Amino acid sequence: MIIYPSPIFGPVHSRRLGLSLGINLQPDDGKICSFDCIYCECGFNSDHRTRSRRPTRQDVANSLRRKLEEMASSGQRPDVLTFAGNGEPTLHPDFPAIIDDTLLLRDELAPKAKVSVLSNSTQIHRPEIREALKRVDNNILKLDTVDEAYINMVDRPCGTHYDVRRIIADMELFEGHLVIQSMFMKGVTTSGDADNTGDRYVLPWLDALRRIRPREVMVYTIDRETPDSHLEKATPEELDRIRDLVLSAGIPCSVSY
User: Fold this and answer.
1) How far is CA 163 from CA 54, 73, 114, 160, 183, in A?
2) Distance, CA of 19 to CA of 222 (rounded, Å)
3) 48-52, 93-97, 106-110, 210-214: which range is least confident on average?
4) Which is nearest to 118 in space by CA: 86, 140, 94, 145?
5) Nearest to 219 by CA among 193, 238, 200
6) Cβ atoms within 10 A of the Cβ of 76, count?
7) pLDDT per residue over 12-32, tens digit each?
8) pLDDT band at residue 160 under the 50/70/90 scheme
9) Do the beta carbons of residue 219 and residue 213 sit within 8 Å?
10) Any alpha helices (H) in 213-255, and if so which ranges?
């Protein structure tokens, strides 16, 4: 399993985003997330309890400035500054202010870089989080399926009840300023069948996409070790079929195999 440094890691080459400088708003000794996905590269929440605090707003700004200056001095420029890492970035209490700081530093030190946020969508009911996400270039929100039983088995939301209908309604509020990221995979786990590549899951998900009207959909599958060892990659043929259905709905779609 991968536990990332904090608050800055990389740069790394992302399958979907290019040369990405990571911004991790969670501690560097564990994981804090509102999901506990059985496919998460960081492992299960219970296996990575944190003992240290989150980086402060100032920690993030100072570390990001140092790294961008270091990259500039070596002639290297990131394609993207990506909020990701050890859990859900929008859980940080200063997330909106950190976004403001990051945009200012990007404009000063890496003006061609995009700012991306990878989020599981659980905090987008909060107006201040939505407004912050509207300010970034790539607001990438997770929607693996619209089947709540599957969500509870695979994404495993923590805490309060997860209402996918509310999530979809909140996604509509972005008025197209979002990218939907969806994981497709297979495998029979101890909790049930994790195959979400068939029409039972894909067609209702596609109906939700028609409502949300995202700028783009990113379809992908497992790329690294998963905490549940029974999971399997979706095949290129299955991913291509899903991509083609999205394209036929008039929505741009990319695939990572």
Assistant:
1) 27, 47, 31, 9, 19
2) 20
3) 48-52
4) 140
5) 238
6) 13
7) 887 667 899 999 999 999 999
8) low
9) no
10) 236-248
